[in-house]
What we know:
Blueprint: E1 2-4, H1 9-12, H2 15-18, H3 23-33, E2 37-41, H4 47-54, E3 60-65, H5 68-77, E4 82-85, E5 97-102, H6 113-126, E6 127-138, E7 154-157, E8 163-170, E9 178-186, E10 194-201, H7 205-214, E11 217-223, E12 238-245
Parallel strand pairs: 1-10, 2-3, 2-5, 3-4, 5-6
Antiparallel strand pairs: 6-12, 7-8, 8-9, 9-10, 11-12
Helix pairs in contact: 3-4
Amino acid sequence: xxxxxxxxxxxxxxxxxxxxxxxxxxxxxxxxxxxxxxxxxxxxxxxxxxxxxxxxxxxxxxxxxxxxxxxxxxxxxxxxxxxxxxxxxxxxxxxxxxxxxxxxxxxxxxxxxxxxxxxxxxxxxxxxxxxxxxxxxxxxxxxxxxxxxxxxxxxxxxxxxxxxxxxxxxxxxxxxxxxxxxxxxxxxxxxxxxxxxxxxxxxxxxxxxxxxxxxxxxxxxxxxxxxxxxxxxxxxxxxxxxxxxx
Length: 246
């Protein structure tokens, strides 16, 4: 068994096949198409911005991601989008964007309050007055991790035509608001499995809103699903937040 992550080129090439375009992408695409200048934080392979450009967006589209392997995929598919390697410690913008988004539950990879504060400070600095930051995190009350079991196997096809089986498994008991898990990739063409180890934070609404207010954001809208349904703390699967720079 080999330890891997989506920072590896081999797994980065599988990302879009594993994460197909869905209702969440439609939700974000509509927002991006209505904003002249957009920053996609943690853009990954750049699927959202690539989709926006293909749909006719003629403004500024900037994708930021710390994984070079992901940006290799993005640049190959859309060289006319601005792809930036790093984070807000290595890149800073001042009042340049009308909209910032963070998709794919990437916000949950921020495991500490200070990590969140740095992100929010960088986003707010990059937004023009009245700009909006839109992102989602899984509602902890929905306990999504209970479905991350090895009996649920996904089958995808890699870029070389190889069939790849993927499954998730908890790596230990839930520790407060943090959930550690593994994502295993198996193929008959490989000598061993590829395993990606991750930890996600399931931040509750009260703690989330306190950090947003501290950073100078106001809640402009909140949804519980990708159809813009009202957020219900007990049952909504998502906490979709539209935050406006105050």
